[in-house]
Design brief:
The complex is a heterodimer of chains A (259) and B (323). Chain A is an alpha/beta fold and 259 residues long. Helices cover 24% and strands 29% of the residues of chain B. The radius of gyration of chain B is 23 Å and the shape is elongated. Classes of the chains: A alpha/beta (259), B alpha/beta (323). Strand 15 of chain A pairs parallel with strand 17 of chain B, so a sheet runs across the interface. Bound molecules: flavin-adenine dinucleotide.
Amino acid sequence: MNAVALVKQVPDRNSAFRPAGDWIDESSLGYGINDYDRYAVEAALALKEAGHAAETVAVTAGPADAGQVLRSCLAMGVDRGVHLVTDRAHLADPFFVARALAGAVSGLDAGVVFAGLLAEDSGHGQVGGLVAGLLGFSFASAATGLQFRDGRLEAHRELEGGRIAVVELRLPAVVAVQTGINTPRYASLRGIMASRRKPVERVELAAPADGGGLRRLTLGRPERGASAEILPGSPQEAAAALVPRMRAGAGVSFPGDTA
Amino acid sequence: MSRRVLTLAERSESGVTDASYELIEAASRLAGGPDRVSAVLPVGDASEAEGLREVLPAGELLLVEGPAHASPTADGTAAAVLHAREASGAECVLLPHDPVGWDVAPLVAARLGTAAATAVSALSWRGDGLVARRSAFLGKFVQEVEAPGLPAVATVERGAFPAREPGPALSVRILPSPVGPGDLRSRLVEVRDAGAGGVDLTAADVVVAAGRGLGGPENLDIVHELAAALGGVVGASRAVTDAGWLPHELQIGSSGATVSPKLYVACAISGAIQHLVGMRGSRFVVAINKDPDAPIFGAADVGIVGDALEVIPLVTEAVRDSG
Ligand SMILES: Cc1cc2nc3c(=O)[nH]c(=O)nc-3n(C[C@H](O)[C@H](O)[C@H](O)COP(=O)(O)OP(=O)(O)OC[C@H]3O[C@@H](n4cnc5c(N)ncnc54)[C@H](O)[C@@H]3O)c2cc1C
């Protein structure tokens, strides 16, 4: 039984994003692994280290340069990668992506499949669950804790209002992990060296058929009702202008105020 | 066009959740009237719904009954929703955008051969499909997506629609559940409190909150200094506490503390919805962020667009000088 992590390549969080057409302008962006997926990779590695998985496999669907995120998974310690090669534009439909991932996962003898709760770019937050639904696996989302006992997986799910649901899942299962479920390791130099010899299987995906799950129509900046007054000038001027506004707006006095 | 819309009703201690009423309102607007709304309530035994039929203002209330639903599970609830969808002929299924919806929506969508539109704030039909307005890039942008075929599935953001007033369901149907407890792949063991933290952020008049944009724990001194100058306490976004820069007790937001200080200073915090719900009640909000598009500016009274590492010490100095 293997531990699988589903990972996505997303634009660097700190890039300046500009809406363009039905998506963002992608002409000058850096890319990296989706933050949530680092936790999924760590969960897969931990499962193997605890003796509950024979092998760890990372799977991604994305364009040729998305192989980069598989390399970073291998450098963290994942044993091998599967790259489902497709145009970046085809990632618009979570159903297309999930069907491709489910096809790959079905050949991996997966016991537990970890996915990030959501991708930072599209934020659909369902690819893990769709894969579970398509394969008939068990599913738990928003996991902040995991325990393995007697061939069953116990997942702690984060609910609202500071509550936790403990659910028991039959295997095979898909678990969509929340950030903070573990502390993702960084790749060591040795890990990076070793990753070069690890295998990545590349599979070319056929273009999506008509219909499908979702289509992008538009992307734009939200209308903001009452937006902040942006203080002009140099940082010094803005800082100086801020203080009287804070005092008046908040109606508080500060420790240094003379009584 | 008289398409039916199905919503999930969830029980709470006092009846059904507020989210259930918001879903019925969303469904009623989409369907063109509450009479074309069906609400599904999975129950272990129909007697559990005693009284609820008086307060669920849908055209029909579908009780999917069976021991598999004595306590909620992802696959059990998904099976009940799919069964009710077929029984009602609904062309759209609306679920809450919360931990229940995240579990159930993809399982329902996969079985219907589609994906769900998630984090949705507006809905309309277009031809034989559904158009949904949703948030993307952690709230930075709004996106319109189309589900080209029906039935469609959507998860609706809390607060996007007003809660419909409670009222009686026009009709009630009891449907025997298609699944038994043995068919389920998941089981709810327990629900418990995660355990509250030791620091009381909620009592502070001034909260200075640190975000991931500060770059690392080595840069947090300037946040502590500003908090000291303002007579306040330090809080944080989840990105900061998950990274271990600050303890989890200091996290503000939907999965952390809810604060309503007189002054809230957000330092290099983007303003994701889950953060905003934890600080919206603040009297006066200041945002310092280098990205003029950061959603936090939409929730702030005053903002400075700039490098927080440069601006924060200047604000600290200006506060000290002003005393
Ligand atoms: C179910 C769920 C529950 C969640 N619960 C919470 C919660 O309770 N609380 C919470 O906070 N989040 C929560 N989140 C996470 C939330 O969605 C965001 O990911 C998180 O709030 C981001 O934290 P951040 O703003 O610090 O980081 P980022 O989103 O990475 O934002 C960093 C910001 O810093 C700015 N920046 C970068 N460098 C600089 C600089 N030098 N100077 C000035 N600005 C700079 C950037 O422009 C950016 O806006 C939850 C998410 C989910 C899915």
